[in-house]
Automatic annotation (TrEMBL):
GO terms for biological process: transmembrane transport. It comes from Chroococcidiopsis cubana SAG 39.79. This is ABC transmembrane type-1 domain-containing protein. Keywords: Cell membrane, Membrane, Transmembrane, Transmembrane helix, Transport. The chain crosses the membrane at residues 20-44, 80-101, 139-158, 178-196. Signal peptide: none annotated. It comes from the Bacteria. InterPro entries: MetI-like (IPR000515), MetI-like_sf (IPR035906).
């Protein structure tokens, strides 16, 4: 217990809330942009031709390499840290969405066309449901990446947060709190990923029925 108090200088919830907020803000933004752009790239060939290659060139850049640019782009470190968590979640969500849309069963598309379905109904009733499992996987992976990138951002630019305190404990040679910080980060990341997984399962009731029937 003493180590916990030593680790959290000040109010513990201040640091936890700061980390959770940064992840939530970056992850939510990444979800909106990643799914929207992924669907557009996967569904429209012209957009894929224009956007896919530049995004592929940016994707391998590690999160830590974005930190100096984030500091230059944003007026405060808080926005920069949210941007880093956004980067961490954006590319897994984007790529998973693209692959999900592109892997739509061609037979289902032809059946829809034979039944006279318009493009919007084909997209809404066939493409999006078919891509949902892949999108769900990207969302879960993206959440884990957000926590990973948050710790990196907090180490270099934070004043509050679990990642910052973990690094601060290392610098001050206060080693027991480092383990506690790692466990706390792992716990919050696991709970966040589990929540995302459960939420996406609710959006795919047909998969739940399939599991039960098997």
């Amino acid at each position: 217990m003493g180590a916990t108090i030593q680790f959290f200088s000040g109010d513990p919830m201040t640091h936890i809330k700061a980390s959770v907020f940064r992840v939530f803000a970056g992850y939510t933004t990444a979800t909106i942009f990643g799914i929207s752009l992924g669907i557009a790239i996967g569904w429209f060939q012209k957009i894929e031709d224009l956007a896919f290659l530049p995004l592929e060139l940016l994707r391998p850049i590690p999160a830590v390499a974005w930190i100096p640019l984030a500091i230059l782009m944003f007026p405060d470190s808080e926005s920069g840290m949210i941007y880093i968590t956004f980067i961490g979640a954006f590319f897994p969500i984007l790529i998973s969405t693209i692959k999900g849309v592109e892997s739509t069963d061609i037979v289902l598309l032809r059946v829809g066309q034979c039944l006279g379905a318009k493009q919007w109904h084909t997209f809404k009733d066939i493409v999006v449901p078919g891509a949902m499992p892949s999108i769900a996987s990207g969302l879960v992976i993206g959440m884990g990446n957000s926590w990973f990138c948050l710790v990196t951002a907090e180490i270099l630019a934070g004043r509050y947060g679990v990642g910052y305190l973990t690094w601060e404990s290392y610098v001050t040679s206060n080693y027991p709190p480092i383990v506690m910080g790692m466990l706390l980060i792992g716990l919050m990341g696991a709970l966040s990923s589990y929540a995302v997984d459960r939420l996406t399962q609710l959006l795919m009731p047909w998969r739940v029925m399939k599991k039960k029937s098997s």
